[in-house]
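F.,

This is the one I mentioned.
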């Protein structure tokens, strides 16, 4: 193992933009299929589901994999495998998107169908904290290109369940920005904030900088992807002034065809401009790059030094929704990592 890889693995860090369903590898999918199907998937069959060439193809692949998750035990296993891999990479805290909107749609809105699934996820979370020392928060993610009432259903469920499960930390909007922006969800974001939920949003991944302004306008605290932010100097200044966290996902953007290469990704430009940037893997099983590899690519493709990688890790902790005491504890350990 190279010295830089050892350094990255030793360094405590958080991952803030990670979709649970996107962590399910073909091998885990086969494991799930063996548990439930009379004719289980072969590894070759599973791998075919992960083939795509653009953003639309990725959305379809994501849905195909999600359809194969059929019960609480499957979600529990998927979450536990995710936690094991995060721990191996030196991740000490993760804030994970659950595609609650997709779960509802696939299960025809049957009453009471989501709660048992979430209990399975919680079992994995508690086990990870007990056995691995990894803390986890959940973000309920609505699908913006479903209907607006569908998103409202997701956000209301997050507010309703938060009293029982403090691990439900926030809400988010994923899906295809090209079909629906952020403005239709403004009232819902205000209601979620009043309920004590934190506000994240995917914006500027497949859309111009105006989409990021729109996301800020509805109260979004963190912006996922923000690939187009550099098109607008005023926006860059606004993001810097307010220290809005940008959840960057370089390999994801390359694999979906939204960025030419890792070297061309605006990560370095945003970092040098003083923006609060974090590195994330988004859907590692689909994009074949986990969080450890994103840090390594930042070093190899964009010349990030150890001190700069340490700053990225520090940003991930500082921009998390952890309590301040927890942030201070991890930040002190990052600063002393050699």
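My design for it:
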């Amino acid at each position: 193992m190279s010295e830089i890889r050892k350094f990255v693995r030793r360094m405590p860090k958080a991952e803030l933009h990670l979709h649970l369903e996107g962590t399910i590898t073909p091998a885990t999918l086969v494991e799930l299929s063996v548990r439930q199907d009379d004719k289980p998937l072969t590894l070759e069959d599973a791998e075919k589901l992960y083939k795509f060439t653009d953003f639309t193809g990725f959305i379809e692949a994501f849905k195909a994999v999600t359809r194969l998750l059929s019960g609480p035990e499957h979600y529990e296993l998927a979450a536990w495998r995710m936690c094991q891999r995060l721990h191996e990479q030196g991740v000490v805290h993760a804030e994970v998107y659950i595609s609650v909107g997709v779960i509802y749609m696939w299960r025809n809105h049957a009453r009471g169908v989501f709660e048992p699934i979430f209990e399975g996820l919680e079992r994995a979370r508690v086990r990870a904290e007990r056995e691995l020392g990894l803390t986890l928060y959940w973000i309920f993610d609505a699908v913006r290109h479903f209907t607006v009432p569908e998103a409202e259903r997701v956000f209301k469920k997050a507010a309703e369940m938060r009293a029982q499960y403090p691990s439900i930390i926030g809400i988010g909007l994923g899906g295809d920005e090209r079909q629906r922006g952020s403005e239709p969800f403004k009232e819902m974001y205000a209601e979620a904030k009043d309920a004590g939920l934190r506000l994240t949003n995917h914006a500027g991944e497949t859309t111009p900088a105006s989409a990021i302004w729109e996301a800020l306008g509805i109260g979004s605290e963190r912006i996922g992807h923000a690939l187009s932010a550099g098109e607008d100097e005023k926006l860059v200044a606004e993001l810097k002034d307010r220290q809005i966290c940008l959840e960057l996902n370089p390999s994801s953007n390359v694999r979906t065809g939204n960025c030419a290469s890792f070297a061309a990704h605006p990560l370095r430009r945003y970092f040098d401009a003083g923006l609060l940037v974090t590195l994330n893997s988004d859907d590692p099983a689909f994009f074949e790059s986990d969080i450890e590899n994103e840090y390594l690519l930042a070093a190899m493709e964009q010349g990030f030094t150890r001190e700069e990688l340490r700053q990225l890790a520090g940003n991930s902790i500082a921009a998390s929704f952890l309590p301040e005491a927890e942030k201070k504890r991890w930040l002190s350990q990052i600063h002393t990592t050699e």
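The chain has 17 helices and eight strands.

Talk soon.
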